[in-house]
Amino acid sequence: MEYSHSDTELIRQPIGYWSWAASHAVVTRIRGALAELGLSQPQWWVLNQVAPAPDGRSRGEVTQVLKGYLEVDGALEEEIDTTVARGWITQDADATLRITPEGSALYTKAAALQEELWTERHEGITDEEYLVTLKVLQRFIHNTGGRAWHH
User: For residue 89, what are the contacts with CB-CB under 8 A and spacing of at least 6?
Assistant: First the structure.
């Protein structure tokens, strides 16, 4: 791979720009690939929370886990409603969400796609490099008084 600048120049590049550009590229790729399956990224997140739970998960539990994901707070309820309306998930009277057979089939396809995308993103990147990158990003967040969490 050819880098944008020499090492001497890169050391002075703004982290804000490069972290944004990486995030934008990754999210755009994921969303485009999921769209080919008829899914939005938040709908995938909902399926990914409900599918592995044999007894279902409460709407509140799903919302609690997902509410901080890429600032989807307000749209999350609508995305959950869409997964129900499309027949991928059911919701009973006590707001327990359960995967349907159709939802399970879609989940299986989307999970395989996510694995392919993970492999694509990590091409040429060792686990050690990835770990250092995440730790450095977390230090940037900490040093600037930010807050981030991912399950």
Answer: 46, 47, 50, 80, 83, 97, 98, 99, 100, 103
